[in-house]
């Protein structure tokens, strides 16, 4: 009897976590593991790229959690710069091209993990591929951007997009000494927040010297005679730019899966069951940025490309592929980011999410502080909370503040997971001491007010 | 028909929160409110006293959340420096002494709130009342200590007790330029942690230049000819001291309640129902440091003197006394404190607590970091987790680290409240970005390891 072979497509967080976990459960004498990665790196923190570009992280290698050599030393047959070009589900094999040699060949599998990640949304506009216009998804992107910044002819940077990548890149470019303009198609930055909370981010970014342009659709990029970018063009205006960073989100990279007839959801991501198996397929798993995940609050699938989920997916897939049992129950939609000293966090549903799934709700927004008001370093914090009418169930929390604001959202993330009501939350026994919190934690203040509003609404 | 009268005994967090909340629900034309306070202040943050003594908080008034005048302006009949000396339950009246005039009189009540707080444990030893020996429970204590520090003849301070007040006072005295010795009867500081975690605090305190003396029972205080303290004496040694701070805990101040025949628990605190009514009494409520509270994890009563609970109790009592409905379901035992840049947090049960209530459990201790390892300012963090055998239910978490360690305990506090298993916790959707957390939050790392250990134990 020949040894079983596990094939992994994609050598980043989800894929290599799956490979590593399967290897922990089954040794090289029991299971062969082959992983294909079209790039030259494995297991790196894409989330760390803005901090490398900004200079807070000194070098690229710091972002690599585990090198190809380390994976190989653990008995994982890793093929770098090798791109899978086809999945033959019926034949249980994948076709892969060695990008350097230019050769293609088939590799059969008993078990398959699809971890093809996401691809950045590239605006369909003239000049989007001009020199000086950069994405920031891969280590290669980061390296190219750093080189552009070093030799830029001026100090004007335009960031297209004001989601978390956009605001993090705004910070990075400020840290590099650039004048930064952020061009955003939405009405406020951070569309993962409600616009009233996004407005707080908007004001804070202006306070940091960032020029924030909202409601602006980019129509093109103007280049000079040398082919390099000169300006970002919108319907209303033109924004001079020596460098342009695109931070307008990503889509699941599922072209291979789609061609193989695997099931995709409304957001273009692979659909899996709770064990991260591709629906309808016993021996194919998928995880990371190429899948859709269940939103436990709305009950619907979402695409949430975050490294923390990709790592969990990999862990679950590797456990199952290695003969164990694990599940990924879903997400509640927690995200945290910062722009300079401004911390931005959210979990659960925004107002429009709640409406879309038919929920009626009450909202409250409160101002509090990160520490006891009298304690040095106490800073203001705004907490918005959504609770369902009648049941009082917590639906979502958004927080904007300074130090200590961001990770407070975890309180709400756990409460959402547990299905708590805001009334139940008012009694939560949270850590209190003057350097850490007011005597009523800001999340409790919001919960009290939300509970009162739910009661009044009846 | 005469107006109903609510009498409140104790003008600090629980008492005045209750009075204020009752006043919100019932105006001065509906309910008379009389509050007796034997001291000269109301509604102050006792938890802030170490930071005032240490100089981080500039003045006493910053610690006062609401002054007597503010309470009176809201229609609360506040009698300062008036000590209740007897509760006549059958006669529905209290006897109070005006401490300045020396007169006593009866005041009848329809509803009574007992918020008499706690009294510091004073060691029964020679010299405990000597000049230069200070408690730190009241604003008056803090003022006296500050005056002693200003005129101290030397720079040697001894803190007796290594609980959270002890370690906070050690920090305050360091900030004031004193050489600090902490004398502790336990085997490690912070007996609210398991000793293995207390040892981390021990080492960190030594790193801060604090001399830590464990397993040392104080037998007395040696004074000079001037009656001022010269040294703290233990069985084994003598520790020279120009000032001594007692931080050896508090007991419920329930002498009045006991004399009135009200029910007390094993820890000497008043016993209440979930609406904070004294058991067996319809119109008497009690809250704050003078009551015992239900520990939701062990199912037993505990004495947990913390301002955050006192405020919640007051809110619940005031709502009920004002004709509304609210409950305080209990605590999970969350506490957070710091000594200089060391953050110390705990929630739920320690090993000995779990054993005492008959639980079998697994423990894990993991090392992780506050942020992504490559992100500047990332600092080490140790997380200990206890989970019940077989069920895998989370029982407790202890965290020792630097910035970002303390409030992470809230994740566990909510999970405990919800009765989550450590296996469920492994899937928690916590906020992740490199400046805020590693891709696996330290609490998740501990949960994964605990879940594995529970499974292995079977």
Automatic annotation (TrEMBL), chains A, B:
Keywords attached to this entry: FAD, Flavoprotein, Oxidoreductase, Redox-active center
Gene3D superfamilies per the UniProt record, alphabetical: FAD/NAD(P)-binding domain
Entry cofactors: FAD
Regions that span the bilayer: none
Pfam families: Pyr_redox_2 (PF07992), Pyr_redox_dim (PF02852)
FAD/NAD(P)-binding domain ranges (all copies): 5-297
Domain called Pyridine nucleotide-disulphide oxidoreductase dimerisation: residue spans: 337-439
GO molecular function terms noted in the UniProt entry: oxidoreductase activity
Record-linked InterPro entries: FAD-bd_OxRdtase (IPR050260), FAD/NAD-bd_sf (IPR036188), FAD/NAD-binding_dom (IPR023753), FAD/NAD-linked_Rdtase_dimer_sf (IPR016156), Pyr_nucl-diS_OxRdtase_dimer (IPR004099)
Annotated family: Belongs to the class-III pyridine nucleotide-disulfide oxidoreductase family.
PANTHER family: NAD(P)H SULFUR OXIDOREDUCTASE (COA-DEPENDENT) (PTHR43429:SF1), PYRIDINE NUCLEOTIDE-DISULFIDE OXIDOREDUCTASE DOMAIN-CONTAINING (PTHR43429)
Name listed for the protein in its UniProt record: FAD-dependent oxidoreductase
Taxon lineage: Bacteria, Bacillati, Actinomycetota, Actinomycetes, Kitasatosporales
